[in-house]
Amino acid sequence: MFLVSDIGGTKTNIAVLEPQNGRFKTLYEKNFINNNYDSLRTIIDKVINEDLKHTFKITHACFGVAGPVKDGLCDATNLSWLVDSRKIAEFLNLSPDCVCLLNDLEAAAYGIQILEEKDVFILNKGIPQKNGNLALISAGTGLGESIIFWDGEKYTPSPSEGGHTDFAPRNKIEIDLLNYLINKYGRISYERILSGPGLLNVYNFFKDTTYQNTPQWLLERFKKEDPSAVISDIGMSKKDIACEKALDLFVSIYGAEVGNLALTALATGGIYVGGGIAPKILEKLKEGAFMQAFTHKGRLSVLISQIPVKVILNDKVPLLGCGNFLKKLSVQV
Predict the structure, then answer these.
(1) What CATH number is given to the structural domain containing 169?
(2) 134 plus 272 within the same structural domain
(3) Domain count, the chain
(4) 140 and which of 166, 191, 197, 276 could share a cystine (Cβ 3.0–4.6 Å)?
(5) Local structure of residue 113 (DSSP, 8 states)
(6) What end-to-end distance do the CA atoms of the chain give, in Å?
(7) For the segment 217-235, what is each residue's pLDDT rounded down to a tens digit?
(8) Same domain as 187, residue 61
(9) 304 with 320, same domain?
(10) Per residue in 98-150, pLDDT tens?
(11) Alpha helices, DSSP H only, in the chain?
């Protein structure tokens, strides 16, 4: 049995998977709010000793963590946890070789390899090149990116921290947004815009510079709900101009950065848009501004227009990716 986990900035999803006929059967799955726990080990302890009560014999474990992984250690980017694979292995009474840490996008990239047709929505059919590079970008609590290259025999994901590269504005309004955010944060990465907190940054830019009268009903929703989720919801329904403008600009910048990654990876096999935000604003992504920004790449516009673009609808991809990685690892072992 495989113990797998997707550790984001806000929540941790843990599952027990059983390999079965080339797929995986989920025997246990549960979400945990990170702020309620002081470490990953505390969550694992609850899962093993309280929830499962040692029902399953865990042979391997894999954890996808939102942050750079080095030598089995990850200091999570948007979370005050230091995750150590060796300490987890000791706690699970497993060999260190049987417990793995992956960057969260690297884990999700392994999951792409076992996606089914129903798991994606095709924004751009394109003309995929056989064995061409793939890429993955995911906006959620943060912004993650991964390049998936063909090594001559199989696809191999490469972790990255591309979401933390410098934001490059394309027009006056984006220059104004950059200047607004510089005054607030200093250096501005794409993650400051293309994430849940980033959408709130874009909304505040419009609210503070153009649309300064926030309706009382909207203020009440901000108090009771996640402001970023409210902004996307209201922006989709066009009930407030600042929310609508914020979502429009967010989608355009998202399309541009997806295009940037497609060029960086030369992702002629296709690019996947994952994370929690894209499925929730799928109707907005279909409207055209996203793909217009994606393909607007000057002399390489024709090339990039031929790259398939797919939105991932299955939110279990990181867990499946951890399982897929462990399956390959256990075969090697």
Answers:
(1) 3.40.367.20
(2) yes
(3) 2
(4) 276
(5) T
(6) 15
(7) 999 999 999 999 999 999 9
(8) no
(9) no
(10) 999 999 999 999 999 889 999 999 999 999 999 999 999 999 989 999 999 99
(11) 40-45, 85-92, 104-112, 172-185, 196-209, 216-224, 227-237, 241-265, 277-280, 282-286, 289-295, 301-305, 317-332
